[in-house]
Amino acid sequence: MQVCQNIVQGVFIKRVNRFSAQVDIDASPCLVHVPNPARLSELLVPGAQVLLCKASGMKTSHKLYGVVQGKTIVGIDSRFPNALFEQAIKESSLLEFAGWTIQKKEFAFNDSRIDFLLGKEKKKRLVEVKSCSLVMDGVALFPDVPTERGLRHVRTLTDSAGHGFEPCVVWIVQRPDAEFLTPNVRVQPQLQDALKEGLVRGLRLYAYKACINGLEMSITGRIPVRVAGITV
Fold first, then answer.
1. 177 within domain boundaries
2. Are 114 and 181 in a shared domain?
3. How many whole angstroms separate alpha carbon 175 and alpha carbon 173?
4. N or C, which end of the chain has less CB nearby within 10 Å?
């Protein structure tokens, strides 16, 4: 998947609000769009090398989509995972979803809109895709801030299992250095409880790593998900 047409490098100065930041581009401070409302405090630190692309139809001239952390490029655009997953379904490149097709996006069920309704013969899957950029010592942690929306999605998906659906949560970890993913209990312990209950009731959990290479981003492999001592 192409993430940018022309890479622009900059130096992060400060976060202005949830969706904008000040970045030094060619020794000139610029206001840029941050396409991710998460805190990202371990990534967006003063002096961090960042990757941007020119933005069109926006109030800012550039959009920040990546952060260089050591030898690792971390994707931070929260829209990338859905696009990557959609491409993977169309190309049938994920073993766990081979043969499934997209029936509808933003499928309404109960009090939520779930990212994808998939179909395969007479079977139906509801899939919610989540973005993860926080990795510590090889462990991908989700979320980095409490997410009531994410918690509601997990509970809604769990309930859908009793209505003929195969519910799935898919995390796309936007960096190559994660060995497994686990709920961030320090930030939101309720999420682990909800995921554990979901597993008992038929919820399927998948996590994949993605890597930015030049102008392209791709899913590079699946990693385990660990919830309260259970590995799937």
1. yes
2. yes
3. 6
4. C
Last residue of a domain, one of 38, 53, 72: 72
Task: Give dist(CA 223, CA 118) in Å, integer.
Answer: 22
Q: Are both 33 and 88 inside the same structural domain?
A: no
**DSSP H/E element including 177:** none
The answer as to whether 36 is a domain residue is yes
Tokens 């929260």, residue located: 78
Q: Return the residue matching tokens 């904008």.
A: 20
Q: Are residues 48 and 101 in the same domain?
A: no
The amino acid that residue 205 corresponds to is L
Tens of pLDDT along the chain (232 residues) come to: 998 888 999 999 999 998 999 999 998 999 999 999 888 999 999 999 999 998 777 788 899 999 999 889 999 999 999 999 999 999 999 999 999 999 999 999 998 999 999 999 999 999 999 999 999 999 999 999 889 999 999 999 999 999 999 999 999 999 999 999 999 999 999 999 999 999 999 999 999 999 999 889 999 999 999 999 999 9
